[in-house]
Specification:
This protein is an alpha+beta fold and 153 residues long. It is built from five helices and four strands; from the N terminus they run ββαββαααα. The strands form two sheets. Strands 1-2 form a two-stranded antiparallel ribbon. A two-stranded antiparallel sheet has the order 3-4. Strand 1 and strand 2 form a beta hairpin. The model has no long low-confidence stretch (mean pLDDT 81).
Length: 153
């Protein structure tokens, strides 16, 4: 059995060698309608939104962070403001016993702390003294300071 090939220019046409004009052109898909894409799951959408970056004001400065980080900061702020639901959630996630986490931390005061407090108390006393002296002073004379206009100008 002999195979017959048709010669078209410098290209043989035959079994497994279709004519050039019937072959797929470069960039042309064999399945133009394509496979139907799966709809994105809710979890995938949530992860996508959670990963998006936003700009928020933190400590007076604009900071870029993900939505997820911003939500965590919000949860901590609400827990710190006394919201028990957020406090329970964060304590659970951090693996802390709620009673232990809510217990106040014993703070030690150093000499430097006491000096700062004393300086602050001195400034407060000076401010109160200056306020009291200002209140004791007579109000300024309206004739001298340009008070009410009597219309004789």
């Amino acid at each position: 059995m002999s195979k017959k090939y048709e010669k078209k220019g410098d290209y043989d046409i035959g079994f497994s060698k279709p004519p050039k004009r019937t072959q797929w052109q470069k960039g042309q898909s064999g399945n133009p309608s394509g496979k139907k894409k799966k709809e994105e799951s809710l979890r995938a959408k949530l992860m996508k939104v959670a990963g998006e970056e936003i700009v928020v004001k933190k400590n007076g400065q604009m900071v870029a962070m993900s939505n997820w980080e911003a939500a965590l900061y919000t949860a901590f702020v609400k827990a710190q403001s006394g919201n028990p639901q957020f406090f329970r959630i964060l304590a659970k996630e951090l693996g802390q016993d709620q009673e232990v986490a809510a217990a106040p931390i014993a703070l030690e005061t150093s000499e430097a702390d006491l000096e700062v407090l004393q300086t602050h108390a001195d400034w407060v006393a000076l401010l109160e003294q200056a306020t009291a002296e200002a209140a004791e002073m007579d109000p300024p004379n309206p004739d001298i300071c340009g008070g009410e206009d009597d219309g004789t100008s």
